Each structure stands twice: as structure tokens, then as C-alpha cells.
Amino acid sequence: MNPKCLCWQRIVRRENIRFSITAVLAVSILLLSAGISQAQQGKRMISVATGGTGGVYYPYGGGIANIISKYVPGVQATAEVTAAAVDNCKLIDAGKAEMGVMGADVAWDAFQGQLKNYPKKVPLRAVAVLYPNVTSLIVLEGRGISQISDLKGKRISTGAPNSGTEVKSMRILEAYGIHPDKDVRREKLSFVESAGAIKDRKIDAIFVDGGIPMSAVMDLAASPGLKIRLLDHGEAVPKMVNKYGPVYYVFEIPKGTYPGIDYPSKVVANANFLACHEKMNEKLIYAITKALFEYKPDLAKIHKEAESLTLESAVKGSPVPFHPGAAKYYGEKNLKVKVQ
Fold this sequence. Notes:
D-Maltodextrin-Binding Protein, domain 2, disordered N terminus
């Protein structure tokens, strides 16, 4: 081999080594700078698991995350879109979310290790009961549906898989003696998908679950050429309570809540609350709980359901024990809560 070629190859190898060392040093400096920047910021990242974009969980959870980020020192919070309550329990249990919004019925099942396909006790703790979780059963006018029994043979949506809507709608149907996989043609659609399907007249009825008013229902009620009705189902409550525990009650959706709905509707409801993992830092949960009440006007600007949040309502309706940090704050306000 030509000695000049060997010499050239050695030079190339040396330059490659130098380039590699330089690249490694550059990356190391960047990583070190990023680490220093993060250390200087001193921010702890936490996730708030919410729900779909058409319901109340997402904007309300986003408001909570915003308050935490603005007013709790050293913490940056983000609201995560999820399939809602059931998934939120699993995310908290898996350490993939620090906090989550959920209904009392799903939380109670999770706390006892009775979630469907998840036979594991989830160590949940309550932070605050936020607002009533109201189930609306929306039907299309002209489809021959005036009562629950008329759903038989119809195409309906019972909510997204692993959502609180699905859990509650299945229990409501059960209370009325309707088998969800034999007596109806069941779809498992999210808030937005359900609203779109009924708007396109591809489906006869939908269950939606959340605070009121719900944006997806407001949109339906205001849609030109579309006539919807809210169907009463509050009579299901006694059977549901008898089988699943005292987590349900009858709620009346006031007339005028939605455009064109000029009558009240008696429906099933339960508490919606903010939960966290039992091992979350006590001082952090205390600070978060305090911020929710001190800066409630900020929260109410994002969703009007926050207007009904009070210290008294925040401690009523949770089926699981409160976190010690939250309990400390309520104790300072002369309110006692159950702490396990």
C-alpha cells in the first residue's frame, strides 16, 4: 500500500477522533447547561389527568394546572387529555400522573380494588370535591324515544371506554333492566364523537357525564335544524345505591341550562373531585389546596362550575379519605375530614 495513503488514513482517523471528542463535549455542555437551567428554575413537574376535550374535566383540570403553576412556588403543572375517570385512576396508580379529576363511583371502585380489568387497590386520596358529576341522556326528537325503555333496539353511545361515563351509563341501563349488549346497539364514543354522531343522525341517543353546562351539549342544543331532548332517569338512583354504595343521588338539571331545553330534567349524579396519590408530599398538597380557594376567581374564569366551589362543598361527597395536606388546610378553616 502507498505510504502516502497510510499517512492520509491516519490523519483522517485523528480528525474523526477529534470531531467525536468535540461533539461529545458539546453535547455534554448542552446537557449540563440544561441541567443547571432546570436546577436554577427549581421546578417540579406534575401532571393533572383530566378527560376528553368536549367535557368539563379538561377545562376545569386545565384551570387547576394553571393555578398550581402560577401560585404554588417551584411547581409546573400540565393538564393531560385522557379517557377520563377510570384511566385517571390507573395513571395515578402507575405514577404517570400525580393528580386527577374523577367521579366518586369510579374512585370508590378503584380504592377498593374493584375496577373492571384492574383488580388492584389504588391508593387514592381526596384533595377537594369540585362539583356535581351530572349524567345527561340526550335523545333525538322524532326517533320514538320518550322514556328509558324506548331505548331498546336503538343505537346509543355509552361513553368512551374506561371513562366514568361508561361506568355510570351501564349502571343506569342495568337499573332499568336494559342489557347494554343485547337490548341496544351500543357504541363506545367520547364526548366529541358522541355529539358528532347524534348531530349527523347516525345515532339515536347518547350518555354524557360531567359538570353543567357541557360544551358538547351546548353545541348540540344550538345546532340549526337539530332538535334534542333530555331524558329523565333519576329513578335509577335507589337501585344503583343499593348495589354500588351511597355515591349517587338525584340531581335536577334546571330548565334553560341549554338552548331550547325549557324544562327541568331529573338525572343521576355523583361527586366529582380532585384526587392524588397517598404518597404525595403533604406540604405540596397543602399549598395546592390553599391555592385553589385563594385564587378561585381565576378558576371560575375558565369554567363556571368553579363558581360553586366552596370550603363546605369541597369536604362533602368524597368516598375516599382526604390527603393529610388537604386535611390540614381544611382544619385551619374549622372543617374536619376523614383521613386514613
